């Protein structure tokens, strides 16, 4: 039995509720919202990576010193953290 048949076999109050859901929240609107959320996450990731690249550029311009090594290590740590956060986010969203 396919989904429309299953829905049609439900009691009338439940069928009406499902119909009202479809009317109040069309599938294309749900899909558009999901796409917008994904685009927002991608833009935030791009912005974070842009900030990370700025940190690396500044560190690369520093003269060789322990501070430069600390700055480069901080960059690597932040980059790893961002990758872990993105992976975690993709698991949570699914």
What does this structure look like?
The chain is an all-alpha fold and 94 residues long. The protein has one domain. Helices cover 87% and strands 0% of the residues. The chain has four helices and no strands. It has helices spanning 3-8, 12-24, 27-61, 66-93. The relative contact order is 0.06. The model has no long low-confidence stretch (mean pLDDT 82).
List the helices and strands and how they pair.
Blueprint: H1 3-8, H2 12-24, H3 27-61, H4 66-93
Helix pairs in contact: 3-4
Question: Characteristics of this structure?
Answer:
94 residues, mainly alpha, 4 helices, 0% strand
Main beta sheet: none
**H/E element string?**
HHHH
Q: Mind telling me the C-alpha Rg?
A: 24 Å
Distance between the termini: 27 Å
Q: Helices and strands: which structural class?
A: mainly alpha
Average pLDDT for all residues? 82
Helical content class: over 70%
Shape: rod-shaped
Number of strands: 0
- Spans with pLDDT under 50 lasting ≥5 residues? none
Number of domains: 1
**How many distinct helices?**
4
Beta strand %: under 5%
């Amino acid at each position: 039995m396919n989904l429309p048949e299953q829905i049609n076999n439900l009691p009338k109050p439940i069928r009406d509720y499902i119909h009202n859901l479809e009317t109040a929240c069309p599938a294309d609107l749900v899909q558009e919202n999901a796409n917008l959320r994904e685009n927002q996450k991608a833009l935030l990731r791009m912005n974070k990576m842009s900030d990370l690249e700025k940190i690396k550029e500044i560190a690369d311009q520093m003269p060789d010193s322990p501070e430069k090594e600390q700055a480069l290590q901080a960059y690597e740590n932040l980059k790893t953290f961002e990758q872990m956060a993105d992976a975690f986010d993709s698991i949570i969203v699914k």
